[in-house]
Amino acid sequence: MAIKFERVGYEYQDIDGKGYLALADITLNINKTGEFITLIGETGSGKSTLAQHMNALLTPTEGRVHIFGVKISREGKKDKNLKLNPIRQKVGLVFQFPEYQLFEETVGNDIAFGPKNFGVSEKEAEERAKKMINIVGLDESYLSRSPFNLSGGEKKRVSIAGILAMEPDILVLDEPTSGLDPLGRNALLKVFYEIHQKLDKTVVIITHDMNTVYEYAKRVLVMREGNLVYDGAPTQLFSRKNVKNWNLDVPDILKVRRAIEEKLGITIEGETRNKADLMAKIGEALR
Amino acid sequence: MSVIEIENVSFTYHGDKRALDNVSLSIEKGEWVSILGHNGSGKSTLSKLIVGLLKPQSGTIRVDGITLSASTVRDIRKRVGIVFQNPDNQFVGVTVRDDIAFGLENLQIERPEMIERIEHYAKKVDMYPYLNKEPHALSGGQKQRVAIAGILAMKTDVIIFDEATAMLDPEGRERVMEFMRTLNREGTTIIPITHEMKEAVMSDRIVVLKDGKVLKADKSENILKDKETLERSNLELLLPLEIMHYMNENGIDNPSLKEFLWQLSLNG
Ligand SMILES: Nc1ncnc2c1ncn2[C@@H]1O[C@H](COP(=O)(O)OP(=O)(O)OP(=O)(O)O)[C@@H](O)[C@H]1O
Ligand SMILES: Nc1ncnc2c1ncn2[C@@H]1O[C@H](COP(=O)(O)OP(=O)(O)OP(=O)(O)O)[C@@H](O)[C@H]1O
Ligand SMILES: [Mg+2]
Ligand SMILES: [Mg+2]
Question: Is A102 domain-assigned?
Fold first, then answer.
């Protein structure tokens, strides 16, 4: 088990000193390889807080998290032998707000920062920066620009490139596609999926986009008010009751499929997880 | 009558690449106009020019017939509210309450009315219990809700929503769409900037930007079906219309299903 949550609770401290319980009693296992997980749930349900526990950016106030064998807990916090750097390298986290992640003078330096920090040579880090800027759909002219003088979607892309360049074992992406144009969103989801498939890596994506969940996820985690309320396959998830109780939405593919079935008085056989599948099935049914 | 008139506006941040290149556009009072386009196409730049946060190197901008300039910018900001793409850029107060109050103070709203509006709009976006929290200590979606409340409370004639729903959950997004519908019915000019065709469906008109230029501006029903224009700016058809397109391409003729798909897409 690469990441193991044992009865984890997390309480934020407000400015007025009041505590706010953002996570309650979370027990959860994430494998080192082979997982493609989407983490969903209503606004303020604790998704980002949970994600920040996956690479020890936050330390639980209750319980413990084991990350690649390293125990992270309140009691262990003062331990001088506790090394977080290897954890940060193994579990790469892309923040919900790219602004929290960008700080170097140029985009190129920003992307190269992570790899260099983890001992990759200057030359190799620059190579990676060039490769990654293309992968996220920007050209090399961006490498010499300031990361602060970019559009919202461009910043998001650069922040993703920076984490990809670290080549972590596990990728945790907090709303990586919000603010991306549809072409960019589809392309990057394919990139994440390929990293998962070709390199057998685990990917965790936080999203509000039910289409992403339905098309890609093998496993879905649903948060509600600091609790983990669902951990299972996407196919069973979208019942009327769950959709209503957890502020979800039915994915477009399912919605449109059901509407067409009803309109034509037919039943489409088999699963249709993406547009191409659905269109092919409709084509068959109508010919 | 036009509430916003943009004439031959160009803007360059620095260097020689134009973020906006000779853009002309006019928006009628009470109209609902969505602005779409690929990342970096100039949407946010355009919105910042309209409220005078940036100054065009050439061209003119008029709001309610008033030409935007250093001496009119304050007046114009009373007429046009903008929800920023990054809510952090909008926060100035120590608490959520201060933050919503800030815009109202600028409008010189009387204290009792101000308190009433703060509470009303905080409730509207479901953030009432958070009024005393620090805006920076909120989740992403909560920040967006507060940013929206702050602008709604100002009751400006025109509201620009710069990807204001990008981090909201589906229910929250639907709720904001509902605010837009209600406000627009009451006469407010609504200008959402978005990548979601579902959000654009509701609008009277859609403007598609590409590389700082207006690629196309037309009635929504025409743009929604215009696969070529959409794809040229990294956008995609709504799913039912994609299916309709597939049917056309493959010679599947079923007029009643096509009509059904069209209706389906209009209903989001
Ligand atoms: N720094 C903080 N101080 C105090 N409370 C916080 C802080 N950060 C988050 N919270 C609170 O903890 C709860 C969970 O926040 P979190 O950011 O994990 O939610 P989320 O599920 O990621 O939501 P969203 O979809 O809106 O991003 C929220 O109610 C939020 O107000
Ligand atoms: N502060 C800045 N300094 C320099 N260039 C900038 C700045 N902000 C944006 N740009 C550039 O101007 C162009 C238009 O950016 P703008 O933010 O208007 O795009 P946008 O359409 O809002 O994109 P997105 O969908 O990503 O938010 C882009 O090429 C961007 O790189
Ligand atoms: Mg979050
Ligand atoms: Mg923008």
Answer: no
* Per-residue confidence (pLDDT) for residue B45, from 0 to 100: 98
**Ligand 2, residues B35, B41, B48, B55: which to mutate, most atoms within 8 A of Cβ?**
B41
Chain-centre distance for alpha carbon B16: 28
Q: Which domain holds residue A287?
A: 251-287
Q: How many CB atoms lie within 10 A of CB A128?
A: 22
Query: Is the pTM value of this prediction over 0.95?
Result: yes
Describe the crossing of helices A152-164 and A182-199 by its angle, rounded to 10 degrees. Answer: 10
Q: Is the dihedral of CA B206, B209, B214, B216 positive or negative?
A: negative
CA angle at B131 for the pair B94 and B162, rounded to the nearest 5°: 75
Taking only the tens place, the pLDDT of each residue in A12-53 is 998 777 889 999 999 999 999 999 999 999 999 999 999 999
Is A266 inside a domain boundary? Answer: yes
**Residue A255's Cα: distance from chain center in Å?**
24
Distance, CA of B76 to CA of B78 (rounded, Å):
5
What's the total number of domains in chain A?
A: 1
Q: How far apart are CA B216 and CA A115, in angstroms?
A: 43
Contact flag B133-A14 (C-beta cutoff 8 Å):
yes
**Domain contains A214:** no
Nearest to A183 by CA among B232, B176, B44, B74: B232
On whether residue A262 sits in a domain, the answer given is yes
CA A57 to chain centre: 15
| Dist. CA A76 → ligand 1 center (Å) | 24
What domains are there in chain B, each with its CATH number? 1-79+156-220 (3.40.50.300), 90-148 (no CATH)
| Cβ-based burial of B186 (10 A; exposed 0-12, middle 13-18, buried ≥19) | exposed
Residue A286 at interface with chain B, using a CB cutoff of 8 Å: yes
